[in-house]
């Protein structure tokens, strides 16, 4: 876990909102209380993927917008009363430290993108939000995408893969191809 950039104030606000939401989800019977965190994780992935969907590459700003939408849809009155600047700070923090708030985030994201790869039929999966999010967050995704392209008889994949450069924290785009 990267401690640099960890915002204690944002952590307090996000943890409180998630705690109250998990409690409400269990109380209202949306899912069993012990599965509320996984339920919220899938909602986070859906919110981010809906913003990233259709793009040619993963952009961290798109995930931050997805996190902002996710937090606003929690229905937490205390969080919704915060000033927009504070809500944006929390969304940015959540998008950078997702695994802290959702313990099964990587597992559920991997399952979600594998499901998309295997079940999207003839529709292009290259610009599917879940696939782009997974390509940016998980190791081994590019290999799975190449394998799926081979299975479909594609001679190349057109996925733009973000590769973070640690020194500058910028993103370079690489087009992978093989023959």
Per DSSP, the total helix count is: 9
- Largest β-sheet summary: 2 strands, antiparallel
- Contiguous runs where pLDDT drops below 50 for at least 5 residues: 164-179
- Provide the β-strand percentage band: 5-15%
The share of residues in helices is: 55-70%
What general outline do the C-alpha atoms trace? globular
Number of strands: 2
Gyration radius, in Å: 17 Å
Fill in the keyword field for this structure.
mainly alpha, 179 residues, 10% strand, globular
What do you see in this structure?
The protein is mostly helical and 179 residues long. The protein has helices spanning 8-27, 36-52, 60-72, 77-80, 84-96, 98-101, 105-119, 129-137, 141-151; strands spanning 156-165, 170-177. A two-stranded antiparallel ribbon has the order 1-2. Helix 2 (36-52) crosses helix 8 (129-137). The protein starts with 7 loop residues before the first helix and ends with a strand.
